[in-house]
């Protein structure tokens, strides 16, 4: 089936950023073999309940097509289903919101944002399925994007039957299988947590099973002919129509959902556009760019500090503060360090190599969903560097000494 097209400039939507910045974790991103530098370079695929949506993007056009499992829809059905896909694309990416206008407003209000706006254009908040969003961000606790993606995809492939298979567009001999996201009734079963532990979910396994069971017990698992979502999923979707405070209160009843996870769900699936999810990484951004004071040592994210940070960001960005926060958060990701940097404008590469990796790179379990921004070195680190440079400056004659002579000279304190 051929692709349909929508005129959408990348200033309004950048798939390369939006689908990789830690909002959604089920998109398959497949490189294309092409010599057309102005055309699509990747295909993006997502499995819904009854179809797989495939997207490609050029500088000014979004291409989309839908693949269905057998039996294939008839021509009248196909026209209706393609219209459904178009409506889904519009809703999922919230294309009714003028992102360029929002960027303009944020740049006027915030000089820091203005520095990032051109390089990180096209980043908008997705309007995801709330149930999938809840489970995904339960997985995000003490985790990183790559690992969350693997966990969520393993969950789908294990608990949902294969909907269909599609070939790799760059290698037709290779194919990929696609699985829908499992409903609460499936993940509420008693043995789910044990299975999830074998899949590497750790303590999050019990959180997911208990949350699913709570939803099913509280709101049911029945479905209707005109709505394939279970009753508990429909209840979650209904939180879009209540106040932010009321929706947050309901989400906090779920096992494994704290303030940050609840706020991620509020922002990314429940239409609460003003909500800024806060963690220690966001705190570092606030210290680095927005005048927040940082304490010495490790900071505990207390409710008071959380509220102060949220209020600070809201005062800077306004009613779409959560959207602006996503741009700044993406700009601070290590994976986006070279994003949209041309060779002529890129900073010079450092010649020194760190002797050891950052602790966050060594401890996979210790990472959060989004990597910690680089911290400003403390006075101790600066003073050691200055002292080392001074010693070298005072002793240029050591350059031609042997190692043994240097050691002897340092021990005796002699000058030759």
- Count the DSSP helices: 18
Mean pLDDT: 85
- The amount of beta strand, in percent, is 5-15%
Shape: globular
CATH superfamily of the domain at 128-272: Hypothetical protein, domain 2
Poorly predicted runs are 345-401, 410-416
The CATH topology of the domain at 128-272 is given as Endonuclease III, domain 1
Distance between the termini: 82 Å
Radius of gyration: 25 Å
Tell me the helix content.
40-55%
CATH class of the domain at 128-272: Mainly Alpha
Pairing-aware structural class of the strands and helices?
Answer: alpha+beta
Taking the sheet with the most strands, its summary is: 5 strands, antiparallel
DSSP, total strands:
7
- Tell me what the CATH architecture of the domain at 128-272 is: Orthogonal Bundle
The sequence of SSEs as H and E is EHEEEEHHHHHEEHHHHHHHHHHHH
**Adjacency order of strands in the biggest sheet:** 1-5-4-3-2
């Amino acid at each position: 089936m051929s692709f349909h097209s929508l005129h959408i400039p990348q200033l309004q939507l950048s798939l390369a950023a939006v689908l990789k910045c830690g909002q959604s974790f089920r998109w398959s991103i497949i490189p294309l073999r092409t010599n057309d530098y102005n055309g699509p370079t990747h295909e993006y695929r997502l499995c819904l309940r009854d179809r797989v949506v495939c997207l490609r993007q050029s500088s000014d056009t979004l291409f989309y097509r839908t693949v269905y499992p057998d039996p294939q829809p008839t021509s009248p059905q196909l026209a209706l289903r393609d219209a459904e896909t178009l409506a889904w694309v519009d809703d999922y990416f919230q294309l009714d919101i003028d992102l360029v206008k929002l960027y303009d407003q944020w740049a006027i209000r915030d000089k820091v944002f203005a520095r990032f706006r051109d390089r990180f254009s096209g980043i908008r908040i997705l309007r995801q399925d709330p149930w999938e969003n809840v489970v995904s961000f339960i997985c995000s606790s003490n985790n990183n994007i790559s690992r969350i993606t693997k966990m969520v995809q393993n969950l789908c492939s294990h608990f949902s039957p294969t909907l269909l298979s599609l070939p790799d567009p760059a290698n037709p001999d290779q194919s990929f299988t696609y699985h829908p996201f499992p409903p609460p009734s499936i993940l509420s079963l008693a043995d789910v947590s044990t299975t999830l532990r074998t899949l590497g979910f750790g303590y999050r396994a019990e959180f997911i099973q208990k949350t699913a069971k709570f939803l099913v017990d509280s709101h049911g698992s029945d479905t209707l002919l005109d709505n394939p979502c279970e009753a508990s999923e429909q209840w979650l979707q209904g939180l879009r129509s209540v106040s932010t405070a009321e929706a947050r209160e309901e989400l906090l009843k779920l096992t494994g959902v704290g303030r940050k996870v609840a706020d991620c769900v509020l922002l990314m699936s429940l239409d609460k556009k003003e909500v800024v999810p806060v963690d220690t990484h966001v705190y570092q951004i606030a210290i680095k760019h927005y005048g927040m004071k940082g304490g010495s040592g490790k900071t505990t994210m207390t409710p008071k500090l959380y509220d102060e940070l949220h209020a600070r960001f809201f005062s800077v960005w306004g009613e779409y503060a959560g959207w602006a926060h996503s741009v700044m958060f993406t700009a601070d990701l290590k994976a986006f360090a070279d994003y949209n940097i041309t060779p002529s404008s890129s900073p010079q590469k450092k010649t020194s190599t760190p002797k050891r990796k950052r602790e966050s790179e060594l401890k996979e379990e210790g990472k959060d969903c989004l990597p910690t921004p680089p911290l400003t070195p403390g006075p101790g680190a600066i003073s050691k560097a200055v002292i080392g440079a001074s010693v070298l400056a005072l002793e240029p004659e050591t350059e031609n000494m042997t190692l043994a002579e240097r050691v002897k000279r340092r021990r005796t304190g002699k000058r030759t």
